[in-house]
Amino acid sequence: MEQHHLTDRRKFIITSARAGLALGLGSGLLGSLVSCSTSRKGVTGPGRTGFQQTPLPYSYGALEPVIDSTTMDIHYSKHAASYATNLQQAAQAEGVDTSKPLEDVLSRISKYSTKMRNNAGGHYNHELFWRCMRGRMNDNRPAGQLLQDIESTFGSFGNFKLQFSEAARNRFGSGWAWLVRDADKKLKIGSTPNQDNPLMDVSDLKGFPLLGLDVWEHAYYLKYQNKRPDYIDNWWNVVNWDYVQQRYAM
Ligand code: MN3
Questions:
Q1: CATH of domain 144-249
Q2: What distance in angstroms lies between residue 79's CA and the mean position of ligand 1's atoms?
Q3: 135 Cα to the center of ligand 1, angstroms
Q4: For residue 8, how far is its CA from the centre of ligand 1 (angstroms)?
Q5: How crowded is residue 241: how many other Cβ atoms within 10 Å of its Cβ?
Q6: How far away, in angstroms, is 247 Cα from ligand 1 center?
Q7: DSSP letters of 42-95?
Q8: How far is the C-alpha of 150 from the C-alpha of 118, rounded, in Å?
Q9: Which residues pair with 211 in a beta bridge?
Q10: Model confidence pTM above 0.70
Q11: What is the pLDDT of residues 13-68, one digit of tens each?
Q12: How far away, in angstroms, is 22 Cα from ligand 1 center?
C-alpha cells in the first residue's frame, strides 16, 4: 500500500516537473507547488482543491509515535477515501462541475444536500489535514510573519497553543479545531461540528483555513482512547508550519 503511494507521488512529481518546465517556472516555485495539494486534473494550490483524493504526502508511519501507522492507514484509506467517493457521487447527482475548485461549492453549501455538505467538508478537511502535518520535530513552531502575527494576536505562541487546544478539547462530539484568517485579515481560533469548515456559508466560524485539527474519535481512538487532550498535546509536534505559512502568505 505504501509502495503504491510512493509510486503515485513519483508520477505526480514527474508530471508536475514537466508542467513546471512547460510554464517556465523556476525550481523554487515548482518546489512549493509540489508541496501543495494535487489532483488528476492538474496542479491545484491551497485555494483550489480538487474532488479526488490525492496521495498522502508521506508514509502511514511517518507521524509515529504521535499518530500511529494503523490509525493513519484506516483514516486515509477508509474514512477519507469514502468522503471523496461520496462527494463525487453527490457532485454527479447535483450537477456540480468538478473541473472547478471545491471551494466554490463550500462557499454556497447551503444550496446543496446534506450528503454534499458532509462529504465536501469531509474531503476538503482531510486533504488539508494531511498537509498540515509532517514527521515529529522538537520545539516545533512557526517563523517569520506568521509567528509575529500569532504573537501580536494571541500574546505569545504558547497562549495561541493553549487557546487552540482548548477549542479542540471543548468541541463536543465530532468536529474540527481551526486557525483561520478572517475577512479582515485577522487570525482567529474556533471550531466547527461534524465535517463543517470555515469556508462554508452555514458556518459560524468563517475565514480561510490555515491549520485544521481533526478531533473525531477515528483520528485518535486506537492510540489515545478517550484521552483527546493527550492527542492534542502530542499533535503540536507534527504540525507542518512551513505549509501553514505558505497558506498564510497567499
Ligand atoms: Mn477524520
A1: 3.55.40.20
A2: 6
A3: 19
A4: 22
A5: 19
A6: 21
A7: EE--TT---SSPPPPSS-TTTTTTTS-HHHHHHIIIIIIHHHHHHHHHHHHHTT
A8: 30
A9: 179
A10: yes
A11: 333 433 333 333 333 333 333 334 443 444 456 679 999 999 999 999 999 999 99
A12: 37
How many whole angstroms from 23 Cα to the centroid of ligand 1?
A: 36
- Ligand 1: distance of its center to the CA of 19 in Å? 32
Distance (angstroms) between ligand 1 centre and the Cα of 52 equals 16
Q: How far is the CA of 80 from the centre of ligand 1 (A)?
A: 7
Q: Do residues 206 and 168 touch, judged by C-beta distance below 8 A? A: no
* Gap from CA of 221 to ligand 1 centroid (Å): 11
List the CATH code of the domain at 2-131. Answer: 1.10.287.990
C-alpha cell at 196: 463543517
Q: Which part of the chain is CATH 1.10.287.990?
A: 2-131
> What gap in Å lies between CA 109 and CA 89, rounded to an integer?
16
Q: Where in the chain is CATH 3.55.40.20?
A: 144-249
Reply yes or no on whether the pLDDT at 229 is more than 70: yes
Give CA–CA dist 32/45, Å, rounded: 9
**Phi then psi for 74, rounded to 5 degrees?**
-65, -40
Span from the CA of 216 to the centroid of ligand 1 (angstroms): 6
